[in-house]
Specification:
This protein is an all-alpha fold. It has 19 helices and no strands.
Length: 344
């Protein structure tokens, strides 16, 4: 989901920007909790800045216990949970990542309660809620952020992306407003390109996408959106070409693989759909949800008529702890395609 990637990118930026506010050198690893509230908050920020997440978390927990009505401690704890979520995701521990996203949302809720209507808190909380899969809450918090700061282009973009499918006209209005305030937002131009593509306005779609790439042509996520624009316009082979040119690490990501698989499927090449998902599985075998990628590859192999390959992929999914009912359903579907001998 491209929108979720943008939300993660925004949340990561918040962590980095918060770190820029810290001064001083690398703190030691000690967890001594001394000094006034301001000093303790600064120390916790420094620990987080230098990647010492556990000591920062211990100090933040103590701060929220001693000053439960101060929003800053809860905001700090939320950002620590976000950092842990990103670290666990990068390590492939998806369930652990999801758990910390939920904790981040809870901490942001408390920070928002005590934060005196701060737009930045609502915006960051919205990013956390979106990544945690709570889209209604994300929309509520983004809307509150926009009410507090009507010209925040980041919030305009987030709401537009969340409303993209259900309310395309509302989404377009928000995106146009964002580009009027700041014409140098590549994600806004890319989203407008995709809207135009869905409406069949090829020239407008290509022009908007060209502008997005002019602003940030090295962004691989924009290349995925570019491929999607071409797929929606019916240029499936162009989508394949764009995605195939991505670096291996990006091409094997779930977001790129989903788009590549859709392009190959539109071309009727289920064998290549299977190739795409198999490559995604191989690159992400360390993830706790890798079984789903192997299962996708196996199902595509069935559609391609390659039942031996499908059986091998289902076996790999099973070894990766795929749910039993998912495996049984996939094998039952494959059995329908088994060649039958002549009746005696």
């Amino acid at each position: 989901m491209i929108q979720a990637w943008f939300a993660r990118s925004a949340a990561s930026a918040v962590l980095c920007l918060a770190s820029l506010g810290c001064s001083g050198g690398d703190p030691d690893d000690g967890t001594a909790d001394t000094g006034g509230l301001e000093d303790r908050l600064l120390r916790a920020e420094q620990l987080l800045t230098f990647g010492k997440v556990e000591p920062a978390a211990q100090l933040a927990a103590a701060i929220t216990t001693d000053a439960p009505d101060d929003w800053r401690g809860h905001d700090l704890l939320a950002r620590i949970h976000m950092q842990r979520a990103f670290d666990f995701e990068d390590a492939g521990l998806i369930d652990h990542s999801a758990a910390h996203l939920q904790l981040a949302v809870a901490s942001y809720a408390t920070a928002i309660e005590h934060g005196q209507a701060r737009a930045g808190l609502w915006r960051s909380g919205g990013d956390a809620a979106q990544l945690a899969g709570d889209l209604p809450l994300a929309l509520d918090w983004y809307t509150a952020a926009l009410d507090a700061a009507p010209d925040d282009v980041r919030v305009l973009l987030r709401i537009a992306q969340l409303r993209f499918d259900a309310e395309p006209e509302e989404s377009r209005g928000l995106l146009l407003r964002a580009t009027e305030i700041d014409p140098l937002i590549p994600e806004a131009h890319a989203s407008l390109a995709l809207l135009a593509a869905h409406e069949g306005r090829q020239d407008a779609a290509r022009a908007r996408m060209a502008e997005a790439l002019r602003l940030d042509g090295e962004n691989p996520q924009l290349r995925i959106v570019q491929a999607r624009v071409h797929r929606v316009l019916g240029a499936f082979a162009v989508g394949v070409e764009i995605l195939s040119a991505l670096p291996d690490r990006v091409r094997a990501s779930r977001a790129a693989t989903e788009e590549l698989a859709l392009c190959w499927e539109a071309l009727g090449r289920y064998d290549r759909v299977a190739d795409a998902w198999a490559a995604c599985f191989a690159a992400n075998a360390h993830r706790s949800d890798a079984w789903s990628m192997a299962l996708q590859a196996g199902r595509a192999a069935v559609a391609a008529g390659d039942l031996p390959r499908a059986a091998a992929l289902f076996a790999q999914a099973e070894m990766q702890s795929a749910p039993k009912d998912e495996i049984e359903a996939a094998r039952a579907e494959a059995a329908k395609h088994e060649p039958r001998g002549d009746a005696p």
